[in-house]
Amino acid sequence: MQPNISIVIVNWNRKDELLRLLGSLYRQNFRSFEVIVVDNASSDGSVQAIRKNFPKVRILEIEKNIGVCASFNRGAEEAKGGVIFGMDTDCVIKDRNLFKKIEEKFDAIPRLGVLACAIRDFDTDQPYPNDPATIPSGSLESGYDCLGFNGTAYAVRKRAFGEVGGYDEDYFIYANEMELSMKIIDAGYLCRFFPDIAVYHAPAQKTRSKRYDYYATRNTLWWQWQYFPLMDLAKRGFGFGVIFMKIFVYKDVRLNSRSLRGILDAVLGLPTVWRKRKPWSEETMSHFYETVRENKKSKSS
Known about the structure:
Layout: E1 5-11, H1 15-25, E2 33-40, H2 46-53, E3 58-62, H3 68-78, E4 83-87, E5 91-92, H4 98-108, E6 112-121, E7 144-145, E8 153-157, H5 158-163, H6 176-186, E9 190-201, H7 212-227, H8 230-235, H9 240-249, H10 257-268, H11 270-275, H12 282-300
Parallel strand pairs: 1-2, 1-4, 2-3, 6-9
Antiparallel strand pairs: 4-8, 5-9, 6-8, 7-9
């Protein structure tokens, strides 16, 4: 029987977290789903543990770590459901009706391309601070227009994902969420945040934050160079203004050898990025600026 939802999980040496996540998935009341784990050459016995404990899971074994973007694309190619649900391994689902709610949203909103989930702390139940920028004029039922999603957990219409070519695999990891969501918005779909559709982020034994400064810096520059019209790019300091804000104002990225190398590699990769340039439409840019403006206004009020 054809599943309605395909869950794609990218794993690299997180066996314990993955088994915890899979256990929560199979407690869902909704049953029309499949699970695909894309394993990036894990050496911790992840694949063997899945086969032993969750034999229904489809496993795609990759011979080396090809990154989140390429791995998710491989999983999406194999997905049979009309909706693809992406999750990090360090997630847990507490709501046993979560998949049913997701299916209902995509059925009710034909133009919905991306559904951004709320991410909550597993221990405290508090929302994470990095929810996407939204327009506050929406509702719990219809969602809130937004520009991106937290890659910890999200859903995307498979047709929309395929139309835009999926993730840009050059990004490897980080900042790929904005690149994908804005492509889907530019293709005429909606990207909406649903604060009542929540997934819980649980502590992971291994952290990979050391890679963040490099990839977040490099990829943030790349997506701006690739998609912003030239006049808008110039107004934003050709992308470097955003990097300045991320380092010195928001402190989202640290100024260190990794972020500096990210800037250097971004510049070295500029010829490739420029060949892929596909500036967003005027309508998409208007939506981008409106969402940023309304989000700032709601936070300051």
